[in-house]
Specification:
Blueprint: H1 9-20, E1 32-33, E2 36-37
Antiparallel strand pairs: 1-2
Length: 40
């Protein structure tokens, strides 16, 4: 943390907006990037 980001702010914001717009019964408890689940 504290270094330069690897993505433009708009790209990061798009991921936040995707998560905010999920339905109440949408996915929970995971990690995602660009609307896709990330392996854990």
């Amino acid at each position: 943390m504290g270094g330069a980001g690897g993505r433009p702010v708009a790209d990061g914001a798009a991921g936040v907006l995707w998560a905010v717009d999920l339905p109440d019964d949408g996915p929970t408890g995971g990690f995602s990037r660009d609307g896709r689940p990330l392996p854990w």
